[in-house]
Structures are given as structure tokens and as C-alpha cells.
Amino acid sequence: MILKGKKGLIFGALDDKSIAWKVAELCAAEGAELVLTNAPVAFRMRGETNIKVLSEKLNCPAIPADATRIDDLEKLIDESQEKLGGKLDFVLHSIGMSINIRKQKEYTDLNHDFMQKSFDISALSFHKLMQSLWKKDAMNDWGSILALTYIGAQRTFPHYSEMAEAKALLESFARSFGYHFGERNKVRVNTISQSPTMTTAGTGIEGFQEFLDYSENMSPLGNAPAQSCAEYCVSLFSDYTRYVTMQNLFHDGGFSNMGMNPKIL
Ligand code: NAI
Q1: Which of 36, 44, 72, 244 could form a disulfide with 65 if both were Cys (CB 3.0 to 4.6 A apart)?
Q2: Taking the model in full, what pTM does it have?
Q3: What is the pLDDT of residues 108-117, one digit of tens each?
Q4: Domain CATH for 71
Q5: Domain count along the chain
Q6: Which atom of ligand 1 is nearest to the CA of 150?
Q7: Which of the listed residues 118, 126, 199 should we mutate to test ligand 1's pocket, taking the one with most ligand atoms within 8 A of CB?
Q8: Count of alpha carbons within 13 angstroms of residue 167, beta-carbon side
Q9: Atom 30 (ligand 1): residue with closest C-alpha?
Q10: Per the domain annotation, does 107 fall within a domain?
Q11: How far, in Å, from the CA of 14 to the mean position of ligand 1?
């Protein structure tokens, strides 16, 4: 029970394939008390595995909030502290969406209004979240803030489109805010760069299955599954990683350090 007594806020559980879903389940199993949140539209999703189902299963509150809206975030942070009876020890940002990818726009023909919205949802929301936590002084000392990212931020994967820039921005926010939170609260801020994973966000990318296979073969350990990502997240919320901060941590079976794998030739 490495999270016993810790209080956490988890963004992004859409269905049981979501990485955040698996993180929430494991955090609960490791003894944490949780508040779940997602965009209001996620609360209107039907189907057997939506956020309300998870909230009942884990017996924890689920509060709707659009992560691009400061007023929603502030209300969410207030309510979370009320429900949990104190400040937060950890926060997971597991949010990503590209409107240009959804609309299957080519990278050389992107709509810049859509791009701004994509950056707002996928990257600025992380700064908005951290700034709201900061102003409300809502993090306990030695807490942990984590966001999920992808190696498209460093290398070119043509179908990843504008999400490459969104993730580069997200990772930079982690470093910059990591400084401020570290100095004031000893709070650490990191990003986990995860292998391609079969989720709603993942499957929105063109040719995702082929890409998943390529990445599986390129990585000596194979693609890291969502459940293992959850395990890594839990380790970063635990007291065993208290001096890890301002890092982009690859959780990718070795993909990021490979140049060529003969298996693929
Ligand atoms: P997912 O589709 O299950 O999760 C994305 C979440 O973002 C959803 O729960 C969605 O409701 C939420 N979201 C969208 N707009 C929002 C808004 N305005 N306010 C609040 N929440 C909003 O997919 P997945 O894969 O679990 O994605 C989680 C994170 O992992 C994302 O940051 C994604 O980019 C990242 N990631 C995913 C990989 C993959 O291959 N699936 C690989 C590497 C990183």
C-alpha cells in the first residue's frame, strides 16, 4: 500500500482502456483516496465503462471540469479538497486531443483555429491546472504532479501531426513549473513518455495499428502496456521517487534509445 494516506486528483478516465482509468484503479488498490474528473461531455457518455462506473467501483467522487477553463479548475480544486478533507498529494494530467487529427487534416494544411484549441486542451490545460493548484496552495509538500506525453515531442512521426508541438509545450511546462513548485513546496513535476497504447486518443491517429506493430518490434522490451504505465505513475506518486523532478521519463520498452532493430529489416 505505497499510497496509503495520500490524496489524489485524476484527470482523463474516459473508458476502461484509458491510461487514467488504470492509474485510478491502481492508486485505489495502493491505498490512495481519490477524486476523478473529466470533461463534462465524458459524463454524458453511455456504455458500460464510463467515468461514473469507475467512480462507483472505486467509491470515490467524480467531478466534471473542462480542463481548459480556469473557473472549472478552481471549482474542481476547491471541491476536491473538501471531499478529501485536505490538500492534494498527487495529480495526474492524462488529457490529449487534436481537432486537426480528428478532422484528418494534412500537416501541410492545418487549420490554425483548431490548432489553438488542440494546444489549449493538450498543453495549456496543464499550465492552467498547475497555476490553479499554485494559487490555491492546494498541494501538500513533497507532492507529485504528472502528465502523459509521447516521443513525438522530440522526433518526427508524420501522423502525429500538431500533437508533436502540443506535447513539446506540455513537457516544457513540466520543467518550468517544476522549478517553481520545487522551490516553494518540494513538489515534483514530471512527464511520462508512454509507448503507443490502444485507447480512444491513440486510435484517432492514422495507421495506428501498423505504427503500434512497428514500435513493438523496434523496442527490445516491446511496447509498454497501459497497466505498466499505471504502475510507473504510482511509483512517481509514491515516496520512493521524491527527488525525481523536471524530467521527461521514457516508459517505452527502450524505443527512445533505439536506432535500428534488425527485427524490422
Ligand atoms: P483517452 O482518450 O482515454 O484519454 C484522453 C482524455 O482526455 C479523455 O478522458 C478525454 O475526455 C480527456 N479530455 C479531452 N478534452 C478534455 C477537456 N477539455 N477537459 C478535460 N479532459 C479532456 O486516451 P489515453 O491514451 O488514455 O490518453 C491519455 C494521455 O496519454 C494523453 O495525454 C495522451 O496524449 C497520452 N498518451 C497516449 C498514448 C497512446 O498511444 N494512447 C501514447 C503516449 C501518450
Answers
A1: 72
A2: 0.98
A3: 999 999 999 9
A4: 3.40.50.720
A5: 1
A6: 43
A7: 199
A8: 24
A9: 148
A10: yes
A11: 8
